[in-house]
Structures are given as structure tokens and as C-alpha cells.
Amino acid sequence: MENSDKQPLLSTREIEKDQTQVTTTTTSLSYATFTADSDDIPPITDLRDFSREFYRESKKLWYLAGPAIFTSVCRYSLGAITQVFSGHVSTIALAAVSIENSVIAGFSYGIMLGMGSALETLCGQAYGAGQIDMLGIYMQRSWVILNTTALILMFIYIFAQQILSLIGQTPEISKSAGIFAIWMIPQLFAYAVNFPIAKFLQSQSKIMVMAVIAAAALVLHTFFSWLLMLKLGWGLVGAAVVLNASWWFIDILQLFYIFSGTCGRAWSGFSWKAFQNLWGFVRLSLASAVMLCLEMWYFTALILFAGYLKNAEVSVDALSICMNILGWTVMIAIGMNAAVSVRVSNELGAGHPRTAKLSLMVAVISSFLIGLVLSLILVITRDKYPDLFSSDSEVIDLVKELTPLLALCITINNIQPVLSGVAVGAGWQGVVAYVNIACYYLFGIPLGLILGYKVGWGVQGIWAGMLSGTVVQTCVLFGMVYKTNWSKEASIAEDRIRKWGGDADSIDNSTA
């Protein structure tokens, strides 16, 4: 049996498809596997049972989460390194890259990543149910949808200068960022290719290869950014060339890995089936995009509101430092998000509701403990770490004042993405999108504006109000998860696989 047909992270169950048995086995160190003694874990009745199963599930979860976190950090660092080198080119170059990265590319990134996350539900559940042949079809459908979306979003890049001028950027920054945005159009289409690939590989637990490719891309990106931008003096042109090339380098290597046959039945070549059932796929993709974008744009709005305060420059600088720290810590949560989404979708697809529920519990507890440790480190070092980011005494003092809020935000934001990952794994994107609108934009932002401007608490008030929205959203998600009938979710997963192209005859209909 080829390695690509093994299900390393599923509870052991033999699924017949085309007279082929897919079983859990033990492989080499590069693809560690885990086995269990039954279809689904037995009911947990005491602390000893919980401790045993918690340990087993932790190994499976961190097998995915470790490389996923590393991959997220590497990809996040591509844009950050480009900004660092652009700061050595000129002030205007730094402004152009920063604005394009955060506004133009950031807006598109959120939409494309959100739409691509629909595959976490479909590929994960199909793989868990043994419908491995459908993974390649799903990925191709997502390529069709995301590249069509990229064609539409391309106009934002083309008219970036006018858009930036409209929202109040200076003519010089708008012009430079607008030109740089046009040069970055290839990156937009790299997103369209990359995100479906990432979900396709994640659903099969092939995370390590993604981490290796991301690490290689980061090393090469750093070297060539220095060479082209500084040594050869290409400036912004060099930044665009290297950043585009780095993303396409990742895409090409991942495609080569897939096309080389390492994914077995998951990739059987291009098919016209990719153009079937597109509308249902589009609806799930749009729901995923709305859900994710509402979360990504929420704290971006925090910095925007801080820019209208009386001490705007100090507030924005201090808040930017806090958001940068939060951004790095969120990479851990994003990796855990991807891992728990794969685990939940795989186990629901396989008809293992108790295992899916346990995976959620392990992920939430693990993420909470990580967030708590990071928060404590910040609180303990609150008188020292701000000096690393600024020499302005007012900014440093404000960062110290904001540290308790930052610590609380890190703790909550290490739990919330895990719950969102469960929502994606279970296919709840549409419901969570409505929850995000209500908690974030109808409650959190209005409360933040009242506390910040009317009550006079300034940036602390704005952040406290918006953080309250996150707390409410997290509580709502906890309530949804608590009330979930996981056996019913496993049945829904089976129906979803059948609806979007799975072979119903080969799905084992038994659930625990």
C-alpha cells in the first residue's frame, strides 16, 4: 500500500472503496502514525480514561499543529521581511509596502483565504469517510472559484492609488503604494492557487511537506530580498519581484509534490467534474470568506478608530506595537485552528463523534494554556519589552498601560480561533458569520466607540469594548459546541459528502 493512502490521524476503521482497504499503520519518522483499538473511542467515565485519551489525542493534534504553526509563521514572515528591507530603501518605500500589504493585499488575502477554507470542511470530511478520490475534484473546484474571484479583486490592485487617496492617504504614498500594488498582482493569483492546495494537503495530514517548503521559501526570500533590494539597488521593484517569486515558489513545489503521485488516489488528474455543483461550493466558500474576514478586519478597525483620537500618533504607535505582538501569537492559534479543523472534519467524516468532541476539548485546553503562559510572560516583562519596539517615552508608557488588555486579548484569541476551526471542520461557517456580525459589529465596535470617545477612556476604552465583543463571540461559540449533537454532525457530514460528489455506496453508515 502506498504511503499516500494511509490515514495516520484517524481512529482505526477499515473503509472499503473499490475493493481497497485503507488502514492505519506505522510508517517512518517523516509520517508518524497513531492507532486505536476501536472505531470510535469508548465513553469516558473517569479521570483516568480522560487522561489516557487526552494524551493520545494530544499526540495526533500536535503532529498537525506543530508543522502548521511553523508554516504560518514562515508565511507571515515573508511580508514582514519585505517591509524590513523596504525600510532600508526609503521612508516612502516602507510606507508603500506597508500600506499595500495591510490594506490592498490584506483585504484580498482575507477573502481568498476565507473562500479557500471551505475545503477544510469538504476535504477533511471526505478524507475521513474514505472518499479520497474526491479531494482532487474539490481542490480543482476551489481553483476555479478562487481564480475567478482573483480576476474580480484584481481591479482593487489596478485602482489602488485612487482607493487609497479616497480613504485619506497622502498623494505621494497613494501613488507609490498604487504602483507597487499593480506589481503585486501575480501574488493575488498565487493566493488563488495556494489556499486550495494547503487545505487539500492538510486534510490528508501532509503538513510536514508544507512546513519544509515554507522554510525553504523564507530562507531564499530573505537572501534575495537583501540581494535585489539593497545590494543591486532595485528597491520596490526588487521587493515586488522577490515577494511574487516566493509565493509562486511555494505553489510550484507543492504542485510538483502533488503531481508526482505522492498523494495517491487523492489526485488522479484534472477532471471536468470540477465544474459540477459549483453553486453549492460557491455558497460554502462565500460563507467561509465572510466568517474569516469579519474576524480579520475586526482588530484592523481598532487601529483605524485610534487614529481619530486626540493623541492619535502615540495611540496608533502603541496600538501597532501591541497588534504586532498579537499577530505573532495568533500564528500559534492559526496553526491550532488548522489542526483541529482537520481532526474534527476527519473524525466526523469517519463517523467518530466522540473522538471529534475529544479533539475539540484537547485543542481548547492546549491553546488556553499556551495563551496563558504567553500572557504571563508579557505581564511580568511589561516594564522591559516595550523598549524593544520604541524609544518614545509616551509610546512606551502607553504600551505598558495596554499590556493587561493585550495579555487578556492573547488568552482569548488563543481559544477563539480553535472554536472557529471546529466550526469550519463541522461546516458551520454560515451560522458563525452571523454570530460574528452580531458580536463584533453590532456589539463590540459600538461599545468600544462609546467607551473610547463618549466616556473618554481613549484607546483603552476602544480596545476594551471591542475585546468585549470577542468575549461574547467566544461564549456563543462555546454554547454552540456544548449543545452540539456530535452523532448528528457525523450524519450531516455523510450527507454533505454524498451531496457534493461522494460515492454513497462506499460510506460506512455506522456511527458510534
From TrEMBL:
Database matches in Pfam families: MatE (PF01554)
Topology within the bilayer: Multi-pass membrane protein
UniProt-annotated location(s): Membrane
Keyword hit for Transmembrane: yes
Bilayer-spanning residue ranges: 61-85, 91-112, 144-164, 176-195, 207-228, 234-259, 280-306, 318-340, 360-382, 402-424, 431-455, 461-482
Main location: membrane
Keywords, comma-separated and alphabetical: Membrane, Transmembrane, Transmembrane helix, Transport
InterPro entries in the cross-refs: MATE_euk, MATE_fam
Similarity remark: Belongs to the multi antimicrobial extrusion (MATE) (TC 2.A.66.1) family.
Protein name (record): Protein DETOXIFICATION
